[in-house]
TrEMBL record:
This is GTP cyclohydrolase 1 type 2 homolog. It comes from Nocardiopsis metallicus. SUPFAM superfamilies: NIF3 (NGG1p interacting factor 3)-like. Residues 129-148 are annotated as: Disordered. Keywords: Metal-binding. The lineage of its organism: Bacteria, Bacillati, Actinomycetota, Actinomycetes, Streptosporangiales. A divalent metal cation binds at H72, H73, D111, H239, E243. Signal peptide: none annotated.
Length: 288
C-alpha cells in the first residue's frame, strides 16, 4: 500500500493504542489520568515523553514540533476552578492549546502495570531475573501487576557500592542519593518503588529485602524505620529520577502498539524521550 495516501494517525488513534498498554481502569480511584487537552481528531506525527508537565517540557515540545506530550505526572491531579493563564496550571494549558500540542497523562496506571514504572527503575539500578510486585494488585488474577517491585542483584554488593550503582543508573539531580544503614552491609535482594514510597516501608520490611530504593522518604518514618532492627537499608532518590527510566519503556511500548494498531502510518510516528531534568531542586549546599 502506498503510505502517502494512507490516513494520518490521529490523537484518538494514539490514545487508543496507549490505553491498550496502560488501561486507565488500572489507575487509583483518586488519580487523574487520560487526555488533558487536545482534539482527538488532530494529526499526530511527533510524541514527547516526559515526567512532568512543566514549562521547560512545553518549551522542549514546542521547539521540537511535538503534537503530543505524554507525561507521568498529572497536570490536574486536584480539582481546579479556573485555567486562567495567570496561574501556573492555566499557563501550561494555554501554551499547549496555542501551540497545538495535546497532553496525556499515565500515572498510577503506569505504576501498577507489568512492566511499569518500578520495573524500569529495577532494571536501572541493576536488578536481574524475574521481578514480583512489592504490593500486588488484588484485582490482577495473574499476580503480576502492583506497586513496587522486588528482585535480585546479579551478585551481592555492599551498600556503599550498591548506592553508587543506583546513582550511576539514574539521572543526576541536585539532591543525589541518600542512604540509611550500614554501608558495609551486604545487599542481594532489593525492593524498589518509583516515586514517593514511604507508605510501602512496612511492605519492604515484611518482604525481607536487604535494601529498599524509593523517593521522598520523610524524616520521621525513615528515622523510626531505621531504629527498628532487622529491616532493609534505605536508598532515597530524587522523585523525578526514580520515574524517569520508565519513559524509554513507555515510549517503546507505545511505538509497538502503534505499529500494530495505528494503521499504515502508525510505525512512522516519531517518539522522543525528554532529556529535560524537571527535578524541583536546583542545588544543594553543605556547611563547610
Amino acid at each position: 500500500m502506498n503510505t502517502s495516501t494512507a490516513q494520518p494517525v490521529t490523537l484518538s488513534d494514539v490514545t487508543a493504542a496507549f490505553e491498550e498498554v496502560y488501561p486507565p481502569r488500572w489507575a487509583a480511584s483518586w488519580d487523574a489520568v487520560g487526555l488533558i487537552c487536545g482534539d482527538p481528531a488532530q494529526t499526530v506525527e511527533k510524541i514527547l515523553f516526559a515526567v512532568d508537565p512543566v514549562d521547560a517540557v512545553v518549551d522542549e515540545a514546542v521547539t521540537w514540533g511535538a503534537d503530543l506530550v505524554i507525561t507521568h505526572h498529572p497536570l490536574m491531579l486536584r480539582g481546579v476552578t479556573s485555567v486562567a493563564a495567570d496561574t501556573p496550571k492555566g499557563r501550561i494549558v494555554h501554551r499547549l492549546i496555542r501551540s497545538g500540542v495535546a497532553l496525556y497523562t499515565a500515572h498510577t496506571n503506569a505504576d501498577t502495570a507489568a512492566p511499569g514504572v518500578s520495573d524500569a527503575l529495577a532494571r536501572a539500578v541493576g536488578l536481574t531475573g524475574p521481578l514480583r510486585p512489592l504490593e500486588p494488585d488484588t484485582t490482577d488474577p495473574e499476580g503480576r501487576r502492583g506497586i513496587g517491585r522486588i528482585g535480585e542483584l546479579d551478585e551481592p554488593l555492599v551498600l556503599r557500592d550498591f548506592a553508587e550503582r543506583v546513582a550511576r543508573g539514574l539521572p543526576a539531580t541536585a539532591g543525589g542519593i541518600r542512604v540509611a544503614g550500614d554501608l558495609d552491609r551486604l545487599i542481594s535482594t532489593v525492593a524498589v518503588s518509583g516515586g514517593a514510597g514511604d507508605s510501602l516501608l512496612g511492605a519492604a520490611r515484611a518482604a525481607g529485602v536487604d535494601a529498599y530504593v524509593t523517593s521522598d522518604l520523610r524524616h520521621h518514618p525513615a528515622s523510626e524505620f531505621i531504629e527498628e532492627p532487622g529491616g532493609p537499608a534505605l536508598v532515597d532518590t530524587a522523585h523525578f529520577a526514580s520515574e524517569w527510566p520508565w519513559l524509554e519503556d513507555g515510549a517503546a511500548r507505545l511505538s509497538d502498539a502503534l505499529g500494530r494498531t495505528g494503521g499504515p502510518n502508525g510505525a512512522n510516528v516519531e517518539i522522543r524521550v525528554s532529556t529535560t531534568v524537571t527535578d524541583a531542586w536546583s542545588r544543594t549546599f553543605q556547611r563547610v
